[in-house]
Predict the 3D structure of the following.
Amino acid sequence: MMKLYSGDLSPYSARVRMQIYAKGIGDIALERPADFGTPQFRERLPIGRIPVLDIDGDLMAESEVISEYLEEIYPEPSMLGATPRETAHIRTLARIGDVYLMNNMFMLSPQSRAKTRNEGIVELLGGQVARNIKALDRMIGRDGFACSGRLTLADCALTPGLFLVENVLPSTGLDNPIPAHPNVAAYWAAIQTNEHAAKTLAELHRGLEERREMIRSGAFDKRMAEMAAAHAAAQG
């Protein structure tokens, strides 16, 4: 049985989990690797991030690569297009979710817990997020799905991306831009009612609350310090 090394709050893991749920794949176990964040994990996988698909010890990294691989080995139901052009549009919207939203939010999120925010970083990355929500508003579907009138890989990437925008961006002192963009706002309200998106969002909310509790208790800072010390020792 394959394993997906994942974490509730990892948006990149979430996009793959949502795909697994939507395709009804039952032979992939979901696990959080016990050594995640340690030098041992980075030794096994130099990128050092999740998700990772473990195929009998052959480790595959990067959520987009994993998603495309799963689409090839589990082609039904398809989450790509009926034509090459439709597939290109799905991949474009997925890239917006992955790179233009998730990646900027991933880099911005440390400012949400910083004792003193770097306002330059907040302005730069927050501005990118707002600009990309505006672009998405012109491209998003109007029928409750990102495009194609059905659930696709675009929805799998946009769902965790918009989750971060709505739930993490305000904690950096910036306004959530989703309500000001009617097409994105309507899509966001609709996709949350989809059973596979709702399951994924419940996991993301659970992970966010766990992270916030760790921050409140001081356990998160302690863990980060321990990981930094372990990596420093491993590097000699």
Summary: The mean pLDDT is 94.
